[in-house]
Amino acid sequence: MRKRAILIFLIVLLVVPPIIQSESLGGVTLLSVEPRIITPNGDRRNDSVFFRFDTNLSGLPIETSIFDIHGAKVSNMTFNSNQTALVWDGKDDGGRSIPAGIYLYSIKIGKNLATGAVVVAK
C-alpha cells in the first residue's frame, strides 16, 4: 500500500501541475482547479475539486466530463451555489466511491475546451 501511495505521489509531481495559469474558454476564464489531489472521505477536507471561473456560468453551453485513466467516463461536474465554479466530489454519476487514481477532466464551453488531471487519493 505504501509503494502505491509513493507511486501516485510521483506521478502527481510529473503529471499534475500544482497551479494552472488561467485558461480562456472564449468569453469565460477558468481561473483555478483546486485542490489537485482530493480525498473524498467525508471529513470535509479536500473532499471535492473546484473548477473556479471569473464569471457566472448560468445559461452557457457547458459540457463537463470526468474520465478514468483508460478513457471511460466516470462522472459529470455540478455547479456550486453561485454558479461561478464547477465541482466534482470524487464519485461516479451514481454517487458511488471510485478507486484512487488519476482522473482526467474535460470542460467544454461552446467550441472552447479545457482539459487536465486531478488525483483521487484514499
Explain the overall architecture.
By secondary structure, the chain is mainly beta. It has a single domain (2-120), classed as Sandwich (Immunoglobulin-like). 11% of the residues lie in helices and 42% in strands. The chain contains one helix and ten strands. It has one helix spanning 2-15, and strands at residues 23-25, 28-34, 37-38, 49-53, 62-68, 73-75, 78-79, 85-88, 101-109, 112-120. The strands form two sheets. A five-stranded antiparallel beta sheet has the order 1-2-4-8-7, with no helix packed on it.
Order of helices and strands: HEEEEEEEEEE
Distance between the termini: 10 Å
How does the major sheet shape up?
Answer: 5 strands, antiparallel
Helix content: 10-25%
Residue-averaged pLDDT: 87
The CATH topology is Immunoglobulin-like
CATH class annotation:
Mainly Beta
Number of domains as seen in the coordinates:
1
Beta fraction of the residues?
A: 35-45%
Spatial strand sequence of the major β-sheet: 1-2-4-8-7
Looking at the overall shape, the CATH architecture is: Sandwich
Cα gyration radius (Å): 14 Å
Write down how many β-strands occur, each being a DSSP E stretch of 2 or more residues: 10
Low-confidence stretches: none
Tally the helices: what do you get?
A: 1
